[in-house]
């Protein structure tokens, strides 16, 4: 069923500043000067955006977790984690904590579930959702510098987080440091170059995907790179599974992909042509048929025993 078309007027003059606030001042030496890292906000440079303006971030994360693809890939990721009674598991970039209750249940009363994120507001939701679970603890930190002892964790879960971080290799090195020698990591990341949106103007659909890859998501093609990056960090990969989400309802797709919001910014920046983009969006929202898809990759790996 198609959703109701919604008017969106795209104007090249409607520029809005989008500032990426993510930086870890304590890690200045490792990542380079903070001011340099903030040049992502300079005019004409990439405008990486951790959140699309389509819903409150906590609602956005819960909607994805409850979608058909979300339920399916998260169940698979959890099976790969193989959580047992007494397992200590860290969820890096836990957001609103959508996965924490299921992990706490699997790890039982002797287990420990540690949710880590740098977003104070999202952690408020995570705390609220797991307040009744004594084995869950929530920590506010930058995952480039984990507040965990070396060899202290049995499992690490990272779900759609490396796409946004400054230096994914540093996060994976931290994961390798904190996992004990029989530890296991499960990462899930999209590959935004796999984004397809069907439209007669296939060139604009291609330009749109190109724009998302180059300007909207910081590490947009990390999905395909996960096996290599895990190998580089000292892990042995033992499972790789693609999951493809697809949408046939434009409004539902927009709630996840935020293409109206992305187009508005792209036209404001002069990255996409205003009139052509307006027609593209109007057709997508009003057309009798809609199709879009995006692939995510679930990759499981372990540290080689010494
Ligand atoms: C797309 S959300 C995924 C949340 C959660 N894993 C889930 O599946 O619902 C990405 C999360 O990564 C967090 N994040 C991004 N960079 C981070 C960093 N450097 N340190 C800690 N958290 C980070 C964001 O705050 C956000 O909660």
UniProtKB/TrEMBL annotation:
CDD domains: AdoMet_MTases. Keywords: Plasmid. InterPro entries: Methyltranfer_dom, SAM-dependent_MTases_sf. Transmembrane segments: none annotated. Residues 84-196 form the Methyltransferase domain. This is Methyltransferase domain-containing protein. It comes from Mycobacterium dioxanotrophicus.
